[in-house]
Amino acid sequence: MREAVITDVRYRMTLTAIRSLGKKGIPITAVEFEDSEPVERMGFYSKYVTHCRIVPNPSVDEELFVNGLMTIGKDIYSRTGEKPILIVTGSKSMAVLTKNFVKLLPYYEFNLVDLETYYEANNTYKLSKIAEMAEVPFPKTTFLKEDETIFMLSQRIAYPVVIKYREGEKLPLKAHERYKIVHKAEEFVNHYSIMHSIQPQPLVQEYISGAGYGVSVVFDSSHRPVEIFCHKRLREYPVSGGPSTLCESIWDERMVGYAIKLLAALKWKGFAMVEFKGDLKGDLRLMEINPRFWGSMPLSLIAGCDMPFAYYKSAMQLKTKHLGHAQFRNRYRLHTKMQYLVQDTLATIGYFKKGHYNPLILIRFMIDILDPRVKDGLFTLDDVQPGIMYIRQALFNRKKKAP
């Protein structure tokens, strides 16, 4: 099996790829940025990692980052006689790769979209137009007109609304910092003005209530799905709208159909997660596309849907049997749950306060803790060291922030 080069190993979801491929005996070179602290390089400590390499941070110097990856690819080719499979998991690394993929073609195999498509998926305004053409329901969206003041805009919209940056992935912000839920006009003018100064003309969308869902996919180079997985968010942190802390594997044919139509319209390749919100039995709206690894990815592996290996095979252009949408449902276990214990504890505290200290919230949390069917997305008995380093990293970051 060809060696895999996996970047951004500081992230929890990157361990999904390391563990998936490592268990199959695939050699893994883990890559992290040279300006990171050793305690932050969590993936380096997995027992499945064969080699560890550091490269310049693309946020500091894109060219040096690309050159660093080229050097790693050359070294592996000279050692094995084969081009390794490149798996890039971070948003900044992914953006740089899509811009420079021609330089990396002589040294790696990979299956990713081009720069234009990547930014179309990340641009909320462009995504709304593509969704409209693909007949995928999208929240009602408006924006500041040329002859309009922010105050005038605040008077013509119905509340509550969500203010979103057009290209939030380009900003050095956490996911929950890329939007703001606003309930009245006075709040709107202040929040919109601040966001407008950071990135001009953010969009204004109707607020969609209901649960959050995701359709995760891997597309081959012919723009056809070779793996599909669905999940539902049960808890998230921050509770106002952040990454999943507890999620469950599900299947919904209508939602899958929307996701496939949308990605087919984009001529997608590689992996992506399409987010929806609403009611599976009623109104459902597209929220965004994550054109990179997503936080809930460990759930797919726990449920029996091996997304990283599906991508590995697609990058090697190995032949895969193409299935109808419904047949993907039978390829993994439904109602499997995954939890990030540390974040889920914080989420439960948040829900507890938000729910006016309803004891049932704490009881549900304790039931999940004691349920052996709920698996942790980070801590595993067969690969314990990354979990230990994660705790050390959390304590390290807390110490750095202390006055």
How would you describe the overall organization of this protein?
The chain is of the alpha/beta class and 403 residues long. The chain has four domains: 4-110, NAD(P)-binding Rossmann-like Domain (Rossmann fold, 3-Layer(aba) Sandwich), CATH 3.40.50.720; 140-206, Dna Ligase, domain 1 (2-Layer Sandwich), CATH 3.30.1490; 211-335, ATP-grasp fold, B domain (D-amino Acid Aminotransferase, Chain A, domain 1), CATH 3.30.470.20; 344-374, no CATH class. The chain has 14 helices and 15 strands. A seven-stranded mixed beta sheet has the order 13-12-9-10-11-14-15, sandwiched between helices. A hairpin with a 5-residue loop joins strand 9 (211-219) and strand 10. Helix 1 packs across helix 10 (307-315). The protein is globular and about 65 Å long. It starts with a strand and ends with a helix. The relative contact order is 0.13. The model has no long low-confidence stretch (mean pLDDT 92).
Number of strands: 15
In total, how many domains does the architecture comprise?
Answer: 4
Average predicted confidence as pLDDT: 92
Placed side by side, the strands forming the largest sheet appear as 13-12-9-10-11-14-15
Distance between the termini: 49 Å
Radius of gyration: 21 Å
Sequence stretches where pLDDT stays below 50 over 5 or more residues: none
Name the shape in a single word: globular
CATH level 1 class label of the largest domain? Alpha Beta
Supply the CATH architecture of the largest domain.
2-Layer Sandwich
CATH homologous superfamily of the largest domain?
A: ATP-grasp fold, B domain
Helix and strand sequence: EHEEHEHHHEHEEHEEEEHEEHHHEHHEH
Into which percentage range does the β-strand content fall?
Answer: 15-25%
CATH-defined fold name of the largest domain: D-amino Acid Aminotransferase, Chain A, domain 1
> Helical percent range?
25-40%
Number of helices: 14
